[in-house]
Every structure is written in C-alpha cells, then in structure tokens.
Amino acid sequence: MNNNLLGLIFGLASALIWGGGDFSGGMAARRIHTIQVMALTSFAGLAAMLSLALLTRESWPRGVDYAWAGAAGAIGAIGIIALFYGLSRRAAAIVAPTSAVVGTAVPVVVSAFIEGLPGPAQVAGFVVAGVGIWLVSRPPGEITHEMRRLFWLAAGSGLCFGTFFVCIAQVQVDSLFAPLTISKASASLTALLLLGLLRLPLPAARRNPLALLAGLMDTGGNVFYLLAARYTRMDIAAVLASMGPAITVLLSALILREKVGRLQGVGVGLCIAATVLLAI
C-alpha cells in the first residue's frame, strides 16, 4: 500500500472520529460551561496519550518540537471552546462547516509556501469554499445577530484549528503518542488557567460522560491526523480531516432534529466539495 493511500485512509479516519467527538462535545456543552467541557476533554486525552506513550516506550521530542506540540495544544483548546459553544447553541449546520473550511485554508496556504503552490483544483476549492460558507451562514428565516455572531465565532474556531494542523505537523520526532501527550498537557494547562480566571469549578468526570467521550474521540482524531500528515502533504491531510463536520451535521439532524435549510444544505455540500477539490 503506497503512502498517499495510507494518508488518505488515516485522514478520513480522523474526520469520522473528530465529527463524532465534536457532536459529543456540543451535547456536553449544553449541561456545563464550554471551558469545563474542554477541561474534561483535555484531561481525558492527556491520560490516554500518556498511558500509550509509556506503554509503547516511545522516545520523547526534543528542543523545538516541544514548542510546536505545546503551541498546537493551547491554540487547539481555544478552537474547541469556540466550536463546542456554537454546537451547544443548536447551530451545527452553521458552525461545523464554517469552522472546517477556514481550518482547511490555513494549512493549505502555509503548505503553498513550504511545499509549493496549489494546483488549479485547489484554487477552485477556495472559490467553492467561499460560496459554501456564504450559503451556510444564511439559515432559513430571518438572519439574526446571534446567527452572525456564531458564524464569526466558527471562523475564529477554524483559524485556531488550522493553526493546530500546521503546528502539530511540524513535530519531527518519529514518536506518535509522545508529542500528542505534550499537546494535551498544554491544552489541559490552558483549561486550568481559564477555569481559574473565570472562577469555574472543575466538574466531576463521572457526571459528564459525553465530555470524556469527546476527549477520547478528539485524541483519536489527533492520532490519525498526525499519521496522515506523515504519509501525505500537510494540506491534503488537513483537508481530509476537515470533512468531519459532515458527520457532526448529520448526527445533529438525525438525533437532535436540527433544521437544515435548503440553502444551508447546498452550502454544506459545497463545503464538502471544496475539501475534495483542495485535496486533489
């Protein structure tokens, strides 16, 4: 099996797992504060990655790799807070695709400088993505101030995720679980700092199983993304991983009966098409 095919498989696996994790996190954020959810997800991921790193006796990163992994964890944590808040407001059809396309654009642009300019299909992907985001941001009925606010919140979330994609892909060590342990430790520290600033308690883990599930699925998505980035171009890995919102929107529509307008449905389809074009 060639490397590109392996990268494709790992990238799609990360999308599937991340999509389910985002849905679980959004559900958890309906019961407790989004920062509390992020704290639980980070601690769950840290425990899982540290255990696997110790069991497999992986070598730990050195020097600048600590900085890349730590930055990825802290920035990704901010993106998770914004995403979970948007999903908790029953706005999956707006928040998830917008966050995904913006998150995809960042590594594509960075990769253009590192690995060369994108091809015509990727340029077309940017155009399709722009139209898709515009349609997604226009839900049925009157467009309220809250909807506009959620759209920009999702764009900021995507910017954080795109930066995460770039930073974690720069880790050069061959280990898999060790750099993600550092990333999750940084995310956990960020969560503790935010909880302290807002004077929020750390919620009981056993009373919030959905947050723990979201943390484990987010960590699983991280593992498969890092694998994908090692077998194919960083921008392609990020694009494939960014298809996760399709799963989030589907679960929200099926389980929560969230309404998806006709134009929004077209917009979601265009966002998915954009990710495919960007991956060509």
Describe the structure in brief.
This protein is 79% helix and 0% strand. It is mainly alpha-helical and 280 residues long.
Structural notes for this entry:
- The protein has eleven helices and no strands.
- The chain is mainly alpha-helical and 280 residues long.
- α1 packs across α9 (234-241) and α3 (64-88) packs across α7.
- The longest helix is centred in the first third of the chain and has 26 residues, at 3-28.
- It is globular.
- The two termini are 19 Å apart.
> What is the tally of helical segments?
11
Q: Tell me the number of structural domains.
A: 1
Could you give the count of β-strands? 0
Estimate what percentage of residues fall within beta strands.
under 5%
Could you estimate the helical fraction of the residues in percent? Answer: over 70%
Radius of gyration: 18 Å
Mean pLDDT: 82
Keywords:
280 residues, mainly alpha, 11 helices, globular
Break the fold down into its secondary structure elements and pairings.
Blueprint: H1 3-28, H2 34-55, H3 64-88, H4 92-115, H5 120-136, H6 145-169, H7 177-198, H8 209-231, H9 234-241, H10 244-255, H11 262-279
